[in-house]
User: Fold Phage protein from Sporosarcina psychrophila.
Amino acid sequence: MKEVIIALVSSSITIIITSFFNYHFQLMKEIRNEAVKYKTEILKNVYTPVLKLLVAAIVPGDGYDGITKESFFEIEDVIKRNYELVDPDLDSIIWSIKKEIRWEHYEDSLKLFDKNKRLLHHVELNFNFYRKQLGLPFNKTKLKKS
Assistant:
């Protein structure tokens, strides 16, 4: 009789421990999957379109001198459509450029903004950071902060 009770208790303890670890690992897997989904969404909806717009402003041979108002408004549109995915640093950069554009509102529309390349460096850094996090090919030199 004692052997039966010991067997029942030990099997019950084994079932409880197994269930706990199974629940714990399933929860961790679900959290990891949600994080990957969120990072993919940020990369796809924010940094890839903004980087495409910034790369279009690069003149071969001359490099990046800045962006025009029109380019900035396209970038701002991408940011507005995906505002919940935008990090605070990118938001503050966008606001500083927007403030600069308001000061220069009556100036020539060909004036370039972001001459200090702050927006370009931030977007390149985060674009490559998220690609690295997702296991995609990335540029190691762009991950080094200047």
